[in-house]
Amino acid sequence: MECRVLSIQSHVVRGYVGNKSASFPLQVLGFEVDSINSVQFSNHTGYAHWKGQVLTAEELNVLYEGIKLNKVNQYDCILTGYSRDMSFLEMVVDIIQELKAANPSLVYVCDPVMGDHGAMYVPENLLPVYRDKVVPLADILTPNQFEAELLTGRKIRTEKDAVEVMDLLHQMGPDTVVLTSTDLPSRNGDQFLVALGSKKIVKDDGTNTCQKICIDIPKIDAVFVGTGDLFSAMLLAWTHKHPKDLKTACEKTVSVMHHVIQRTINYANEVAGPGNRPSPAQLELRMVQSKADIENPTIVVEARVL
Fold this sequence. Notes:
Blueprint: E1 4-12, H1 19-28, E2 32-41, E3 52-54, H2 57-69, E4 77-80, H3 86-102, E5 107-110, E6 115-116, E7 119-120, H4 126-134, E8 140-141, H5 145-152, H6 159-172, E9 176-182, E10 192-202, E11 208-218, H7 227-241, H8 246-272, H9 291-295, E12 304-305
Parallel strand pairs: 1-2, 1-4, 4-5, 5-8, 8-9
Antiparallel strand pairs: 2-3, 6-7, 9-10, 10-11, 11-12
Helix pairs in contact: 1-7, 2-3, 3-4, 5-6, 7-8
């Protein structure tokens, strides 16, 4: 049974971010991916220069209308990432509502990209749209700690706080919530990053339970772009393949990330040469070279069930 994904994200000519980060790995894993590019840039904005175009809400609607007129607007999954325009995001909401009405079992994976480390890098008027319109439609939500705090109005200082915030996010709509990165201390020391996940499960007898996990991710000292987009895409893929097992889905997702990032940093350091910091171009994700790891990742992390 093939699975068709509508992915609404940014596009770059050179490198891997947004749809470029999500499409290839999903296709490798057997998913059909229809891409709408919210922006088309020469490269990501971490370079010294970048040029390009931004898709307006009206242009997004025109593209969707074309798909609809041909009656090929049937989707199993939707994936959305970075958006910096309120009218664009509201148009995305309209499209998702329509697609969900047509297919009630559609799974919407939302990365509510708003900021990190205490600072917003999208306009503040996007927060109420995410909180009140987007999150209630989402089935799987992948915020970082700062985004989860923005959406719930609660600070995360302990693992207990993180669990409570995930429960609050469940109440807002999504059955699955993964905090992709937090500032919580890892049991494995300061070379690790802590991520947490929570999934609402309906048992055979009709009662509800929650699977909650914690995962320690090895840190790598470099700035990578497109990793969040890859994370959301892989979580979509592996939760689709393991619908009742968040632990396995997260282990596979994080392991893919680890292999891609490790291959990237090894390559970047080699090309940059001893003592030199790799450039943004050298740190572009080694996606094609990681095809085998994406298809069948060797598991390098084990999630702890809370």
